[in-house]
Amino acid sequence: MSKNYSFLVEELSVNPSAIQSKKEQTSKKIQYVTSYVEKWLYVMTERSTTTDIVFIDAMSNSGIYSDGDLGTAPKVCRMFSRFSKRHPKLKFHMYINDANEERMKSCGAICRHFSPYKQRIVIRASHLDVNDYLNF
Question: Residue 4 carries which DSSP code?
């Protein structure tokens, strides 16, 4: 069972209208992506040639759902925080995007909440249509 992060909505002054319900396929996407990213981080952080780790979420949503579960970007940000503590020489970059500005503000605030090592975890947020973001 996941921890309920609903308290962050009030704590971080997130606009409640930015929060959406989560569909079953979204839960599976979050599960699969975060599982993969964690394994990828173990491999990449042990390579002597790695200096930077980059994660891109082109459709981040608000970073939290109406049931209190975190979205993909905040979960990855929490992983980045754990790994950056163990690997202080690496720089972690997170690019997050959502077409809706309020959802992007929410996601950015939640990701920053989970990023105590701001000099090692860089978060860049934008609110573009996914096709424009990916330059299609």
Answer: P
